């Protein structure tokens, strides 16, 4: 049976380290502050925003919260971002996605100062990651690297398959694995012989947003399986993109849903807030 990779425990370890760093910065006269903007009241977004505030509180950094009504215009949102870009007492700016349909997400992401882009979504942050320059890294892929390293899983020289090619997880994940000297394949819905491709993986990372898509016939015996998906099954129970009960008996280590990758995303967001001080120095 697979070892369970406990994202809650590892994220707490990271948050405790960040608490010390935040205290040291405060002692040196630097107060770190994250500004979180939410437009509308999407229930999932409300939970994420609440968790981000709790995380800031836990590690001892400031958080500003802007809860804007659904009908907020794109211009109003961009004006607020411009104000926060100019404020020296704000280190990180995060706009909670998804945004209402009348607001263009790409325009909003590009409006954030890359030095305050703690989500790591700005094209400049993504470009820096591509060529190995300093910059913010998208929180979920950065969290997965920490999950692997802190669980004692060797990445260098391993065959890694990333199933999913989104800008937020799939693409940056592949780049981070390359940076760790893995051999990387990105697979997706148009990949031919998908099961044959995923079965080559020593480390399989699944981020497609389809409940229980990956069963044991996608997985090499003894592989490490990281499940990024957060879905609801037919009984409205939370589940991942991997059929946990089917896959766990054949792999070496696996992340659960919930309690695997999710807590790491917030831990790495907080890490980016602390790192922002260096980038802004």
Could you describe the 3D structure shown?
It is a single chain. The protein has 281 residues and is of the alpha/beta class. It folds into 2 domains: 29-115, Leucine Dehydrogenase, chain A, domain 1 (Rossmann fold, 3-Layer(aba) Sandwich), CATH 3.40.50; 139-262, Rossmann fold. It is built from 10 helices and 11 strands. The protein has helices at residues 7-27, 43-59, 74-86, 105-111, 123-130, 139-150, 170-179, 194-198, 244-247, 262-280; strands at 3-4, 33-39, 62-68, 92-95, 159-163, 183-187, 203-206, 224-227, 231-232, 238-239, 253-254. A 6-stranded parallel beta sheet has the order 1-11-8-7-5-6. The protein has a 3-stranded parallel beta sheet with strand order 3-2-4, with helices on both faces. β9 and β10 form a beta hairpin. α2 (43-59) packs across α10, α6 crosses α7 and α6 packs across α10. The radius of gyration is 19 Å and the shape is globular. The termini are far apart. The model has no long low-confidence stretch (mean pLDDT 95).
Summary tags:
2 domains; globular; 3-stranded parallel β-sheet; 281 residues; 10 helices; Rossmann fold; 6-stranded parallel β-sheet; single chain
Distance between the termini: 48 Å
Strand percentage lies at: 15-25%
What's the overall average pLDDT, rounded? 95
Order of strands in the sheet with most strands:
1-11-8-7-5-6
Low-confidence parts: none
Structural class: alpha/beta
CATH architecture of the largest domain: 3-Layer(aba) Sandwich
Estimated helix fraction: 40-55%
The helix/strand series, from N terminus to C terminus, equals: EHEHEHEHHHEHEHEEEEHEH
Number of domains as seen in the coordinates: 2
From the alpha carbons, calculate the radius of gyration and give it in angstroms: 19 Å
Number of strands: 11
How is the main sheet built? 6 strands, parallel
Number of helices: 10
Q: For this entry, what is the oligomeric state of its chains? A: single chain
User: Could you name the CATH class of the largest domain?
Assistant: Alpha Beta
Looking at the structure, the CATH topology of the largest domain is Rossmann fold
User: CATH superfamily name of the largest domain?
Assistant: NAD(P)-binding Rossmann-like Domain
Shape call: globular
């Amino acid at each position: 049976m697979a070892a369970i990779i406990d994202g809650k425990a590892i994220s707490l370890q990271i948050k405790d380290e960040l608490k010390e760093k935040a205290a040291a910065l405060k002692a040196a006269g630097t107060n770190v502050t994250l500004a979180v903007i939410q437009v509308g009241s999407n229930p999932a977004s409300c939970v994420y925003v609440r968790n981000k505030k709790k995380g800031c509180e836990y590690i001892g950094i400031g958080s500003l919260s802007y809860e804007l009504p659904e009908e907020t215009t794109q211009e109003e949102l961009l004006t607020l971002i411009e104000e926060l870009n100019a404020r020296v007492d704000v280190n990180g700016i995060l706009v909670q996605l998804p945004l209402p349909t009348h607001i263009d997400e790409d325009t909003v992401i590009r409006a954030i100062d890359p030095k305050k882009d703690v989500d790591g979504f700005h094209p400049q942050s993504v470009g820096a990651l591509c060529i190995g320059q300093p910059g913010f890294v998208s929180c979920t892929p950065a969290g997965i690297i920490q999950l692997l390293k802190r669980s004692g899983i060797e990445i260098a020289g391993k065959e890694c398959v990333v199933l999913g090619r989104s800008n937020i997880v799939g693409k940056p994940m592949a780049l981070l694995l390359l940076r760790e000297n893995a051999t990387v394949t990105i697979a997706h819905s148009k990949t031919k012989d998908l099961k044959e491709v995923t079965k080559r993986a020593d480390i399989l990372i699944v981020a497609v947003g389809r409940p229980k898509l990956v069963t044991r016939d996608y997985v090499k015996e003894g592989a490490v399986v990281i499940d990024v998906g957060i879905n609801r099954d037919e009984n409205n129970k939370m589940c991942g993109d991997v059929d946990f009960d089917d896959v766990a008996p054949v792999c070496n280590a696996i992340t659960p849903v919930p309690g695997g990758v999710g807590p790491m995303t917030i831990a790495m967001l907080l890490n980016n807030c602390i790192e922002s001080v260096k980038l802004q120095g």
